[in-house]
Amino acid sequence: MPCPRTPSKLSKSVHRQLNSYALAASAAGVSVLALANPASAKIVYTPAHKMIPRGLPGMAYLDLNRDGIADFKFENWWLSATDAWLSSLSVFPAQRGNGNGIFGYGTADKLGWIYFPFALRAGARIGPAQKQSFFSAKYQEWMYRAGGAWGQWRDVRNRYLGLQFLIKGKTHYGWARLNVHCNPTSHKITAVLTGYAYETIPNKPIIAGKTKGKDVITVQPEASLGALAAGANGIHTWR
């Protein structure tokens, strides 16, 4: 018959370390599930509700894997004068030439070669395939430009950007979900990021809008970083 074990007592120093760890996790708004190793989670999903600010331009940066390095940049232009106005929404890699790209198509125009990201529906497959092109434009990639009604992002809800980016030199795929609306009177564009996700396994496709399943981990935005404003220039970073 096995001998009963006497419960061991933790030292005061160990108690202090555990308490400090719990408080730090709570302050950062991170759940116990979110502290799991992302490599074993396969897909990391972050819900959000962040508006892309308007300005000359209004700018926001998206850090898909929350490593402190911006992966993509949004610009929401709005300029009004007595007899003219300009309103446009665009997205492109935060750093040029780093291997990041947006799933879309390009076309020749009188302005030159321009790029348009697809407004994907939930269930679309994002990943390496012959018919998919991830552009890293030299200039802006238009999601929507009022006036000419360019792009696929005019007045849409729950549509997805297909994203390709590098983690330690290896290609990963992800998505960002947005709602976009253009006011027909003021021509101001309202764009709201409602969530984003990425696949932790290199070169593995991801399904747009997949937020549940045994291979998905949900990470709540860090309280101190979810709506970080960098001074008066209207630059926001989401991590």
Q: What's the SSE blueprint?
A:
Blueprint: H1 12-27, H2 38-41, E1 43-52, E2 58-62, E3 72-80, E4 85-93, E5 101-109, E6 112-117, E7 125-126, E8 134-135, E9 141-145, E10 156-167, E11 170-182, E12 189-199, E13 206-207, E14 216-218, E15 228-230, E16 235-238
Parallel strand pairs: 1-14, 2-16
Antiparallel strand pairs: 1-12, 2-3, 3-4, 4-9, 5-6, 5-8, 5-10, 7-13, 10-11, 11-12, 15-16
C-alpha-based Rg, rounded:
21 Å
Return the structural class.
mainly beta
Distance between the termini: 54 Å
Please, what is the average pLDDT? Answer: 76
Helix fraction by DSSP (H/I, runs of at least 4): under 10%
- Major sheet: size, sense and barrel closure? 8 strands, mixed
Helix tally equals 2
What is the strand content?
35-45%
Number of strands: 16
Order of helices and strands: HHEEEEEEEEEEEEEEEE
Poorly predicted parts: 1-36, 223-235
Task: Briefly say what this structure is.
This protein has about 240 residues and is mainly β.
Question: What do you see in this structure?
Answer:
- The protein is built from two helices and 16 strands.
- Strand 5 and strand 6 form a beta hairpin.
- The protein is mainly β and 239 residues long.
- The N terminus is likely disordered.
- It has one domain.
